[in-house]
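Standup notes, structure subgroup. Blocker cleared on the iron/sulfur cluster input:
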Amino acid sequence: MTEEKKEGQAGQGGGKPKVPRQGMPEQDPHVRARNFDEVTLGYTEEQALLEASRCLQCKKPFCTTGCPVGIDIKSFIGLIQSKDYLAALAKIKESSLLPAVCGRVCPQEMQCEKVCILSKKGDSVAIGRLERFVADFQAKHGGGQIPKAAAPTGKKIAIVGAGPSGLTAAFDLTVMGHKVTVFEALHKAGGVLVYGIPEFRLPKAIVEREVKVLEQMGVEIKLNYVIGKIKTIDQLMEEDGFDAVYICNGAGLPWFMGIPGENLNGVYSANEFLTRSNLMKAFQFPEFDTPIKRFKNVAVVGGGNVAMDAVRTALRLGADNAYIVYRRSQDELPARHEEVEHAMHEGVKFKLLTAPVKVLGNEQGWVKGLECIEMELGEPDDSGRRRPVAKPGSEFTLEVDAVVVSIGTSSNPLLFQTTPGLGQTKKGYIEVENEQTCRTTKKGVFAGGDIVTGSATVILAMGAGRSAAKNIDQYLKTGEWWSK
Amino acid sequence: MEEITLREIIDYARINEENAKRFYSEAAEKASAENVRAYLKHLAKEEQKHIDHLNELEKKVDKSGKIPKSHGVAKPLGYADYVGKVRLDETASYQDVLKAAMAKEKEAFESYRKYAALSDDEKAKALFLLLADEESRHLRGFEDKYDDFMREIENN
Ligand SMILES: Cc1cc2nc3c(=O)[nH]c(=O)nc-3n(C[C@H](O)[C@H](O)[C@H](O)COP(=O)(O)OP(=O)(O)OC[C@H]3O[C@@H](n4cnc5c(N)ncnc54)[C@H](O)[C@@H]3O)c2cc1C
Ligand code: SF4
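Run returned:
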């Protein structure tokens, strides 16, 4: 069963008949809460044409200014209006390698759609949904070609990490004629796109398709290859003859709360929980028998997008009750509004203004509960913010058999420990000259994506990959570097 | 509780602050991360300011025989109650330092509160409460910092 989300009417100028923003067809919440199929189903051609017809083809299109990589949105929507979907896709690909991914996971409501002129008076054009439509159209109907590389330059580049940043850099550098090898620690390429974001938001087949294109272009991807363990960055450059290295290994080291009981069995970081589900195919149980226990009641601590992914995954793995435990109020939930709404419709229970105090265990050392305390908003401080303060005596126990901690991640120390001369910022990320040049404090070594910015977005990581490729190419030609 | 002079109470508070200063200075020697080291040194300096403040307080109390008015107690955010104990060694992170600092301030706050409750002498009671209120504000300062830190990482 599917349902279509109702959306408001949008004003449209020039006396044209009003076409409302087209709702996104979705699986019924009760059904989808128990399967891993994609939640949103994508526009039909008819819906895409109606939605595209809402675009005013502005003389000064604000939408592009809101896009972190400056996609020519007006033009691609214009091409949809004239039903040239493959040309629309090609237009997007001038600026972004993975439209099928970005159309699904970019926070458009904070970017292009936020500044679309229509949003001033009503609903913006559904830019992300149109982006997804053209990418899916090509996947379904074929067309498009494998991009050609320039004549070989004889230069070799190593990329550390096969996430969106690494894949983008690999693509661009290959098109420029360089020989690219990507080293990936896990047994699958794609980074967070395959091990973090769940199947029901981003089908893995999409990422696999894109990785295959790269391989067909001649990119070599070495899996199960941890740089810093199997080989160091210095070895890649000095022994294996790489002329430059791009480090884009993400920021996947989880933070924990530091409360008693966090070492009990049944406490996971969101990363581990999602990785087990995604990469070890726990979501295809019982076909794939993986070491993930069936939990009846799961508490996910945190309120960001990762927490929403984890709690919705817990439901789909068969939990009777899946809770979000978050110490702040609903207004402060950092997750995208759409994700919170999806989680609520699927039956996730939100314990807001609630802070975990202690994880309780049974005699076998497994989680049996999460002790929490209620919070209330305190007096406004100097900045006017009302921080949540504990309500004395309001402690209570949530009976759960698993706790998933999703309060953020930081950088892994391995590469710093094994790469002399690689500078680190105060917050623990790789120091670069600036985010445009991606040059680190070590000559010939570039860095970008989450390992430079801290956890951010797919499109920013891809943008960094593109900047890095441009600057690596430049460096290979001039040999110029910077000094602090 | 045995009779205790106002001067002795201030001495006791000064020893607490001196211990805290030593604690941060020693942790700064051990910490390997540059930013953590710098922050610990800053905290040691802050403790010195508290010692200076107690010296001033002692003079005022000596001179007037009165206990100055408190600026009030700060409501805690609750973090200090629930973060586990941390030892600050060479691997100490900014988060660890905040946790250790919260634990220290909370301990001081509670001990002054306890002694206030045990004191029969009105002035001694008022002085302990004044000191407790000051610690509550220090604690809240660290809890605010911890809250900002958690917010920043959780927004990712
Ligand atoms: C659960 C989850 C949901 C998210 N949802 C969204 C969303 O909806 N929208 C959005 O825009 N962003 C989302 N993000 C954030 C987004 O996925 C990241 O910002 C983005 O993937 C960063 O890309 P990256 O290439 O820098 O790093 P990553 O995607 O983290 O890739 C880094 C790769 O490097 C590999 N690696 C690490 N160390 C080594 C080493 N030493 N040697 C070799 N390989 C190594 C890792 O295995 C990984 O494959 C989400 C993140 C998570 C965790
Ligand atoms: S701002 Fe909105 S209406 Fe204008 S071109 Fe961009 S998508 Fe179309």
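Discussed briefly. Residues 251 and 455 of chain A are 6 Å apart (CA to CA).
Next: hand off to the docking folks.
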